[in-house]
Amino acid sequence: MTNYGHKNVVDESARKLVAVITGGNSGVGLTAAERLLSLNNGEGIEICLVCRNKQRAEVARSSLLKSHPNATVDIVLIDTSSIASVIKGAKELRIKYQHVDFLYLNAGAFLVRRGINWSHMMKEIFDSDSPGQKILHMFSTGEGLLLQRDSLTNEGLQQVFATNLFGHYVLVRELEPLLGKDSPSQVIWTSSRASIKSSFNVNDIQHKNGQDPYGSSKFGIDVMSVALNERLNKQNIYSHTCCPGLVLTNLTSAIFPMWIWYILLPFFLLMRILISNFNMTPYNGSESLVWLSQQNPKKLDPMARYESNTSFLWKRYVSSRKLPVDKDTCDQLFKECDSLYQMFKRGETIDNIDK
User: Fold this and answer.
1) Annotated active-site positions, please?
2) pTM
3) N or C: which end of the chain has fewer CB within 10 A?
């Protein structure tokens, strides 16, 4: 395990830390929960798994309690694609906790038609002046590699936008009374190297008219994180984004069956010589999520995304990447999301309103 520079010693007289993790029933979210418990001796932190599926959440909770029998692990059911579900679940969280130290916004949707967008990939490679660099870029970010799809939620929102970005934005707003104040709180978004600036249009934040809803939503996460810092740092709330890299989880199994991934595994391990974010396992991918929890948030760069990496020799480390965002885009995205949020708070519905 990476040495983060200090020991975590449980002070029995101190208030326990609280970590709320959306998408905490599997993959990187569940692994981060387990690692947070280990770092805090199992009893110095309370974990709340925020999940859609109660049965899967219970299985995840049981696995955490098996390795940490004295831990406190709660479950709150929230579907981040449903704003009504987010508002209801946030109310339960406000009753359950007095303060949240770490709010991990990790739940995500990546809707793809299985397979590779071969025609686009070949066109991009052969039209490039540096095909080798283009191949590396496409494999490290996924840009243009996959055939994506999207759908409408029952509330009239684009599903990927609602699940990845807007539902989490609403959760932050609803939990503001539990964040910051006397002690700092960290809002930690799971972004991605697939965060593509060219896929994002601030005049179409739901990505109704594009072909890369996932890349758009992840860039929107990067933009929103910067926007929140400008507005919430004075309340002792600090927002940062992280990237787990390529990890074999439920999301990747939607692209190819797992047996294909395992066949490709030696290739990806070899590619670590050139692309260090091919982390493959949730444990490696969770490195940046856990690392951020051990930092002084006031000293972190609000304009950076923190990325999990694994070297060819299996050494885990965290790197930072400057976010290509500007103040005007941050202000407009926040304004658009806040307008939608206030509409839902008033109980109004979306009648094909273009945002």
Assistant:
1) 214
2) 0.85
3) N
